[in-house]
């Protein structure tokens, strides 16, 4: 059985957390920008967001009949 995020082609907070090596709560804090988070942790989370975004866009383009 596949995860919902794989079915929809979108990454979840849990996907980002696993990629960054942090908790889902930490990802939420970084994305929300309300709570203090170290620069190193913020960098890890944002790098994971970019990586997953690029991966999902590439997968979508590969599946597109127009790509």
Would you write up a description of this structure?
With 67 residues, the protein is mainly α. The chain has one domain (4-61): 434 Repressor (Amino-terminal Domain), CATH 1.10.260. It is built from four helices and no strands. It has helices spanning 4-8, 13-20, 24-32, 39-63. α2 (13-20) packs across α3 (24-32). 13% of the residues are buried. The model has no long low-confidence stretch (mean pLDDT 81).
How many individual domains?
Answer: 1
| Discrete helix count | 4
Name of the level-1 CATH class: Mainly Alpha
Summarize model confidence as the mean pLDDT.
Answer: 81
**Succession of helices and strands:** HHHH
CATH topology: the name is 434 Repressor (Amino-terminal Domain)
**What is the global morphology?**
elongated
Instruction: Tell me what the CATH architecture is.
Output: Orthogonal Bundle
Give a short account of the largest sheet. Answer: none
Helix content: over 70%
Organism: Streptomyces luteogriseus
Protein name: DNA-binding LacI/PurR family transcriptional regulator
Domain HTH lacI-type: 11-52
GO molecular function: DNA binding
Keywords for this structure?
mainly alpha; 434 Repressor (Amino-terminal Domain); 4 helices; 70% helix
Blueprint (SSEs and pairs):
Elements: H1 4-8, H2 13-20, H3 24-32, H4 39-63
Helix pairs in contact: 2-3, 2-4, 3-4
How would you sum up this structure in a few lines?
This protein is mainly alpha-helical and about 70 residues long. It is built from 4 helices and no strands.
